[in-house]
Amino acid sequence: DVPLIVPQVNAAEIKNMKKNIIANPNCSTAQLVIALKPLHNLFKIKRVVVSTYQSVSGGGKSPMDELIDQTKQYLDGKKIESKNFTKQIAFNVIPHIDVFADDGYTKEELKMTNETKKILDDSIELTATCVRIPVLVSHSESVNIEFEKPYTLEKVRDVLSKADGCEVIDKRENGGYSTPFEAAGSDETYISRIREDKTKKNSLNLWIVSDNLLRGAALNSVEIAETIIYSK
After folding, report:
1. What pTM value is reported for the model?
2. 51: closest CA among 80, 28, 67?
3. Does 7-218 carry CATH code 3.30.360.10?
4. Which residue in 27, 40, 130, 166 is the catalytic one?
5. Is 139 a catalytic residue?
6. Does the active-site annotation cover 130?
7. Which tens digit of pLDDT belongs to each residue from 137-194?
8. What angle in degrees, to the nearest 10, is found between the helix axes of 153-162 and 27-43?
9. SS3 category, 31
10. Rounded to an integer, what distance in angstroms lies between the CA atom of residue 95 and that of residue 77?
11. Domain ranges in the chain?
């Protein structure tokens, strides 16, 4: 009974609020659906395969402090003991966020599946692998999308460039893409590396980067409040 809201995607669902509660989605889901929504409107998404590269701030301040401390310890040649992570995070990646379910997926991965269906379209099939990386702020996602309808790269770039909350940085040259460092502190969801998946019909590859503390949490909450206020 509780609406799960990303205003750029499903603001109309606010009217279905029954318990005076509105939920924020998972930060990795929020930036994903902002990019998926305009594409789904045009080409209807059948399936999504996403691998996330999530910053340590997704776990809070203590993991951020630990990354900084571990980095210093590693460079000083000192022994590292992990407190907030299952393995060393400095100069490493960990393919494990949140607890494991019986089927081998983690809770973080299942959230992305369930929340995308609830926010965007229950008919979309989504599978995720969520990875923690040694970055302080901003989550990145490698996304493969299968559409029901044919698309053109020109139309994809055009619709994403005009979509609320999205910014396309997609130059096929060195540095012609967004990274977590550039996205930190920005409200936008950056979309890069737009290219055809030549192995499957009507399929597309994207790279998505966004500040998880803003887009996935604080900013989304403020935008929900603004939507409620300005709709009255």
Report:
1. 0.94
2. 28
3. yes
4. 27
5. yes
6. no
7. 999 999 999 999 999 999 999 999 999 999 999 999 999 999 999 999 999 999 999 9
8. 120
9. helix
10. 25
11. 7-218
